[in-house]
Structures are given as structure tokens and as C-alpha cells.
Structure prediction request, 563 residues.
Amino acid sequence: MAKQYSDKKTVKALIDLCVEAGIREAVISPGSRNAPLIFSFSACKDIQSVTIVDERSAAFFALGMAQQLHRPVALICTSGTAVLNYAPAIAEAYYQQIPLVVITADRPPEWIDQADGQTIRQENIYANYIKYSCSLPLELNTGEDTWNLNRMVREALFTCVNFGDGPVHINVPLQEPLYGKQIFKTKKGKVTQRICPKVQITEEQVQSLATRVFDFESIMILMGTHQPDPELSRLLNLLVEKYNVVVLTETTSNLTNPSFIGCIDRVLESIAYDNMSIFVPDVLITTDGQVTSKKIKSLLRENPPKEHWHVSISPSHPDTYRSLTASVDMEFAPFLEAILPYLNAKRKRYLESWLTQDKFASQRHDYFLSRLEWSDLKFFSVLKNFIPEGMMVQLANSTPVRYVQLFDGYSENLTFFANRGTSGIDGCTSTAAGASYASRQPTLFISGDLSFFYDSNALWNNYLRPDFKIIMINNGGGGIFRHVCGPMSNEEMEDYFEVKQDISCELLVKCYGLEYYCCENESDLLRYLPVFFAKNEKPSVLEVKTPRLDNARLLKEYFNHLK
Prediction:
């Protein structure tokens, strides 16, 4: 028997357009005003729907799904403050360029600001962090109403995945009664085909750019967060091996090559101040993806390259290093392919300088770690050798994503992700859970204690996979603030910045029915890690306790030792 949809024609029209556009997943939070949306999305055989109560967690869960699926995920909630709870994830999706279709139920327009329950101003509520926003008609009374709805929804769904992916918002005012249902006859509307040709660079444009850099000795490509991309990897490998271009990557760039500089901070800390100018490029080439390293940002801002090209299909071309000389509106890999024939191979000294310094820093790194006592840094040095092949690694802000950048030699079969769009701690666990669920891939999430406790509602859902694993590094609070000069020198450090926690991780984890392990030293870690990774009967958490006051001291000693 056919399932019944909501009897709201606006909702049925919205569902049909979502299916037409290829929406196949939806994350729904319970509510009353969004009951018509719940009925219809759950009845649609073409869309798989999951339910997560906490809207903030639900939104990050959907973000993690879209991150792995590489297609839009619908996000559906009731009216009022539920809508505001989506905001952190929407901002993250906007700056990460991840496609979300945010669908919010609303009161009828005449009841806004009339002291009615769960009623706030929802139109354009995400104005600063959304690619497109619209509010649908309350009823479809005329042909013009239907035309208008179709026009706006199609525009939203097109914008979501063109000119740089990102979130869009469809606000749906709904009039009571809300719980009526009916069976609709299958009806296909007229599909509006929209052609979006790929942007190509002309030969004249390539020659113009190449002329500007042909005689320069040093070219640097700086990569931030990036999805795994075999074609981009091939081109960058060619640039390093044949044209001696320096390629700087981060763990979250998902690019590996022995000739890439993969531990930027480690290398930069090892360079004597008087020699720093040797490592400044004449030409800098960047693309989308946030860069974690503050040290490389400082180097390039204080020593601007002569040319900086930013290549992106996104409308925004940020001048991150205050030296932008050219914006190229096209995808990065095709741009590199186009410019390759125009490069020369005389930049060997620049690449050799970086590789020699990288080798020196690596040797100093290894020596320091061989004598290192138990700490956050020691934990990451041990963990690197235990992560199983083929695992997805999700990294929380703020310290885990930074510690991981200090190590190279990870397996090429690992992939790394982090919420570096806005770099907040507020939804890292939920994002990792959503990514695990969507990818069906064994997933490791590494978090600090504040980030883990902040987003503990991520464990409050029915979609955690048994091979979803969390390592929570409990160093007694916000350890990142002991690495930042400002807070450390103030009396408010412990009470207002670090904020030591006395919450029991074990009780919290067991409350949600997860497996729990704990280690307090290196020998514990060596004993528990094989068991932790081997058991996959249910999701599990390993709490790693490290010395709160020693971590910052040892990290400072580490960086001093690199010099």
C-alpha cells in the first residue's frame, strides 16, 4: 500500500523537487510545526530519513554525511529556536563549501511578532552564511503560486551545488491543521534543464600568467583542507618531480608524496631567523581549503610573495596573505593541467632548500620523541603506528588537529577530515558520527575533553556504527590556551580559559551504551590500543589521560629543540 504524505500541497511539491534534484538523504529533528515535512519525507521511498533530536547535533551530523557523500543532504526542523540551533553547522558548511539543503518549518507570516508560541523571524535568518534563501507560499491556490514555488526551490537546489558547494535555506510556512494525510498520484512536473559549462582558461590567459613567473626561481603551492583527489595528486606529484615546485600540505589536505612538505610547522620552527628569507616564495598558488598553520600564514604575510594566484570556482577569492595578484575562476586541477606546459624546471635550489630543512627537522623531531615523557605529544607519536589501514580519521578542534600536523608517514590509505571552516569545537563529534554513518567506513574520531563534552549529544542518536571509535584526550580542560601566549600570562587562565572539568567520561559513555576504555600512561596505551581497534561489536571510547601542566611545557621544549 502506498504511504500517505502530508495533505499540504506545498510540502508534496517540495518533496518532488528534492527528488528531482537528486536529494537522497534527510536528517529530521522532531517537532509539531514540521509534522507535514516529517510525514512526507519519511513516506518518500526515494529519500532515506534519519531522526536526531538535538538540532545542533543533527545539523553537524548532516554536514558529516554531505562531506562524505559529496552531494546535498536535507536538514529539517520545526519552527522557533530550533532553527537557530542549525546556525553553527550552517556557518561551518558555508566556509567548508559543503552542500546542505536546510528546510525549516515556520508559522504563517501574519503570526510573526504576535506573541505566538515557537514563532521568530525566520526569513533570511542565516543571511550572512547561506548561498540562497527563500520562503515558500503558504498555500498553492493559483497556478502562479505553484510556478513561484517551483522557481524558488529549483533555484535553491541549483545554487547548492554550483559555483562552489554550500548551504541553502528553504523556509516553509505551514498553517494548522498540521496532521492531515493523503495519497497523492505520482505526477512528474516539467523539468527545467540548466546548463552550467565548465570554466576554461584560454591559451592567451595561460601565456600571460606564465610570462609573469617564467623567470622566478621559487614557486610554492600551499594546500589546506581538501577531499582526496587522485587527479590533483597526480598533477602535484608531476609539479614537484619535473618542475621543482615546492608543495606544502597539511594532514587534512589528503595529499602524500615524500617530496611534499607535510609538516609545515615542524619545518618552519627549525629554520634560523636569519635564513628565513630563503624559504619565501616568489610565486604563491593557492586554492580553496582552510590552512591550519599559523606559522606559514605569518611567514607569507610578513614576507609577501611577488605573485599570489588564487584558483577557485567559488565567488569568494580571499586575500589571506595580503599579496593577491590574480584570481582565476576555475577548478584547481584543470588549471594546473593547463599551466604545466608553460613552466620551466630551473627551480631546483628552492625545492632542495625545503627538502634539506625538512630532513633536518625530521631528525630533530625523532630524537626528541625518543626521549619524551608521557604527554599529549607522546600519545600522538604512539597512536600513529596503530591506526588500521583504510580508516577515516576525523579530528576535533583545537589541539588534536594541530598535533596531528607535526607527524608525517601516515598510511596513504588513511583519510583525514576536520571542521576547519570556522574551526569551532561545537559539533566535531556529531560531524564525525555523520561521516561514519554515511561512508559506512571504519572511523576514528580524535578529540580533546572540552570538545568531547561540549558535543556529547552526538552520542544521543540511533545511528552510531559499531566501528565508530572515539579517542578522547583528557588533559584537564582547554589545553589549547596553554599554547597561546595571551591566556597563559593572566590570572584568569585556569578558571575562565582552561576551565578544568570533573565530569566522568566513563559514566557519560556508558550512559549511552558505548564501550569504554581508559589509559593513563604509555604502557596502558600500548596494551589497550590493539584491543580498542580490534573490537567492533559496538561504538567505543578510549579516554587517554595526560598531565595537564606538562603538555604545554613539553610542546614548547619540542619546538625549541627543533632549532
